[in-house]
């Protein structure tokens, strides 16, 4: 059954192919046909068909390239050429006046050679002042130490090398202060002696008064018994009683005076001890202060002598003088001011660049770099290949670029070919480093704005 159907289809196709096709009309005949028939009968232009196919092919090629093709991701970082490792920066140690500049830019120096001489007068005056202060403090320490001892006159031991006139003055001052303290003690002792004499007198008066009172009391008791029997006059008995009462009052007054004198003696002893203790405490306090001052002066003298030594600035290593920044005799330098650099002969130039904050996370050591020197347009003189050596971990604030990370780039050559000549590069030239941080598909550049827009559109307000 199925075979019959297949045979019928084959015969129909053979019949159709054997029929005579209508003859194609000429272009002139088509021009006289109505518009809709002309469109149906006229074949499409080969040029238009080729143009459309070309456009479609180009779109397919562009889409394929955007998907498969990749381009480099470049981080552009400005910077300048600097001396590489091994260079020594020469700085001014203190404020000073330049009296001699002993080198010139580009001069070769040896380690220990004098570079710049500063005016030493200020440093010498400071050393002299500190030595005088040390001598004065040393004498004060010796004087106060002797005063604290039990025998100041024989305990005074001035420092070696002290000025004899100052020693005599310090000794006289010490003895004067010691005698003044002893005079105060003698005043208290004199008052105590006077008090003791008064107490002894009072004690004798008390003893005599007590003896008289005992005698009067004994007579009063005897005569009272006689008076009771009428054998003694009443009036004389009353006189005797009066005498007895007066003796008692006298005894009580003397005893009160004795207690007062004893209290005064205790007070005088306490005042004498307190005065002596305060004097010793004052001596110990001053002695401690002078010792501290002496230590401070000695430390300052060491510093001043070091500054005096640095008034002649010496080369720290062998090398060539570069970036000499002072040229005026009599000019003033400030502490930490950079005066020059001494660069070893084998030291190379490096590019110190500022990596922007947005690129810092992608820049690592070992990445390839294209260095463009601003003094030589790269479109004419080309670029210099390099490699990232390292990147700092801490950001630095830049007025124009914001937060930046300093990095160093090692360059493959230190010259630029200009008309067949090699022009050497020098420190300070401005450069732009283009760091290859990775690769990216071309289509990502087109899709990223759409992704960003979609992400923001889907985020809740």
From TrEMBL:
Single GO BP term: protein secretion
Membrane topology: Single-pass membrane protein
Pfam families in UniProt: Beta-barrel_AprE (PF26002), HH_AprE (PF25994)
Gene3D superfamilies membership: 2.40.30.170, 2.40.50.100
Primary location: membrane
Keywords assigned: Cell inner membrane, Cell membrane, Coiled coil, Membrane, Transmembrane, Transmembrane helix, Transport
InterPro entries recorded: Beta-barrel_AprE (IPR058982), HH_AprE-like (IPR058781), MFP (IPR050739), Secretion_HlyD_CS (IPR006144), T1SS_HlyD (IPR010129)
Transport as UniProt keyword: yes
NCBIfam families reported for this sequence: type_I_hlyD
Protein name: Membrane fusion protein (MFP) family protein
Native species: Aestuariispira insulae
């Amino acid at each position: 059954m199925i075979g019959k159907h297949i045979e019928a289809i084959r015969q129909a196709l053979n019949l159709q192919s054997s029929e005579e096709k209508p003859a194609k009309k000429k272009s002139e005949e088509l021009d006289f046909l109505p518009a809709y028939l002309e469109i149906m009968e006229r074949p499409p232009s080969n040029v238009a068909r080729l143009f459309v196919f070309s456009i479609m092919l180009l779109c397919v090629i562009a889409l394929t390239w955007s998907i498969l093709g990749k381009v480099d991701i470049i981080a552009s970082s400005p910077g300048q050429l600097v001396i590489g490792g091994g260079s020594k920066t020469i700085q001014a140690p203190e404020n000073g006046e330049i009296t001699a500049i002993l080198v010139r830019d580009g001069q070769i120096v040896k380690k220990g050679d004098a570079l710049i001489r500063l005016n030493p007068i200020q440093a010498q005056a400071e050393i002299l002042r500190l030595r005088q202060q040390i001598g004065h403090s040393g004498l004060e320490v010796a004087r106060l130490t002797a005063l604290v001892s039990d025998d100041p006159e024989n305990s005074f031991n001035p420092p070696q090398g002290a000025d004899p006139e100052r020693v005599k003055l310090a000794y006289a001052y010490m003895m004067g202060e010691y005698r003044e303290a002893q005079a105060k003690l003698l005043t208290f002792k004199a008052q105590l002696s006077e008090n003791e004499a008064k107490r002894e007198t009072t004690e004798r008066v008390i003893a005599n008064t007590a003896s008289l009172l005992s005698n009067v009391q004994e007579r009063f008791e005897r005569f009272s018994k006689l008076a009771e029997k009428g054998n003694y006059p009443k009036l004389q008995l009353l006189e005797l009683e009066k005498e007895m009462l007066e003796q008692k009052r006298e005894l009580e007054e003397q005893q009160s005076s004795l207690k007062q004198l004893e209290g005064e003696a205790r007070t005088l002893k306490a005042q004498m001890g307190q005065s002596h203790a305060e004097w010793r405490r004052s001596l110990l306090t001053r002695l401690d202060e002078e010792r501290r001052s002496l230590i401070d002066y000695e430390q300052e003298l060491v510093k001043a002598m070091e500054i005096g030594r640095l008034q002649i600035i010496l080369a720290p290593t062998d090398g060539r003088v570069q970036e000499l920044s002072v040229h005026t005799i009599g000019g003033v330098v400030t502490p930490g001011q950079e005066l020059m650099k001494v660069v070893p002969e084998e030291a190379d130039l490096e590019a110190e660049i500022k990596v922007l904050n947005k690129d810092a996370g992608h820049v690592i050591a070992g990445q390839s770099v294209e260095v463009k020197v601003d003094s030589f347009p790269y479109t004419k003189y080309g670029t210099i290949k390099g490699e990232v050596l390292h990147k700092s971990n801490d950001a630095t604030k830049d007025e124009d670029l914001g937060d930046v990370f300093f990095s160093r780039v090692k360059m493959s050559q230190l010259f630029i070919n200009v008309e067949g000549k090699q022009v050497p590069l020098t420190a300070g030239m401005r450069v732009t480093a283009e760091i290859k941080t990775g690769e990216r598909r071309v289509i990502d550049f087109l899709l990223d704005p759409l992704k960003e827009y979609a992400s923001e559109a889907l985020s809740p307000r």
